[in-house]
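debug: dumping io for the single-chain case to check the tokenizer round-trip. Nothing else runs in this session.
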Amino acid sequence: MAGLDPYTGDNGVMKNRLGIQDAGELSQAERKLASIRAVEIKDGSAPAATRGHFDADHLRAIHQHTFQDVYEWAGTTRGDDLTLEGQREQQPVQLIKAQTSFEEGPKVNAKLDSLFARLAEQDGLRSLSREDFSRQAADVLSDLNQVHPFREGNGRTQREFMIQLAEQAGHPLQFEAVTQQRMTVVSFDAAQGDKDSMRRLFDEITDPDRARVLQRGFDSLHGRYGEQVQAVYLTSTTAGETYAGQLQHKDRQHFIMNSTGDTVVGHPQDLPKGSSPGEVVKVTATPMPSAAEERQMQRGRSMGY
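debug: decoded output
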């Protein structure tokens, strides 16, 4: 099957500018080089097109700059003309990853143009409440991921695009504490027509108070388990919902518990008094306190209230 895919060599490894023949080695090199280029986009030293007009060319520019050191075809969608190792190649029609079938190659560019035309009609999601923005932005990413415009590198390209979209709309996204496992699951759900888990994710990472507590949980687990935290479905509590399970961690800034297969991060104000790690607890979540409210709580504790 590898020989049927023009993007890969006979050994199934993606053809690359580095001459790497091992998939694991290529993955590490790609991650390192793409991370350097991603910083250039964020600090403004990348070409202006990488911070463009929220259209298909903008998306192409982000992908091209991010992966230019690794792939000859960086910036080429699955619907564009394809050149590999100096030779014109036929784009594959089908793309299937982890049992998910994405948009057919010949339809990719038209789907992108349609998606971005709708986004332009919505004024780039400006002038919306945080709640409305989070829901509509989640749907944009769900639809964009289903198109899956590039052979590889879609996740990093799409996140950078969405981060820029959120910045200009006034509702910054905090992707740092979103684990690979959670991103994989919500993307799969959306591909099956269920956007609820993606919408919940965006509701969390557009809310600075929830995102702050979620980040604490991520940092705590990362300190304990390293990169294995990426295999965890990590989420924060939602006000009004009830959670039951074993308490893993508790301090003055957050708690972590297992609940119905998820790893849940919440604020300790919701824990039963006297609860300790290892115990099974039941929690009904309240709204996360703001940073100012947390400072007031800390002052109260320091004064013995």
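debug: round-trip ok. The mean pLDDT is 95.
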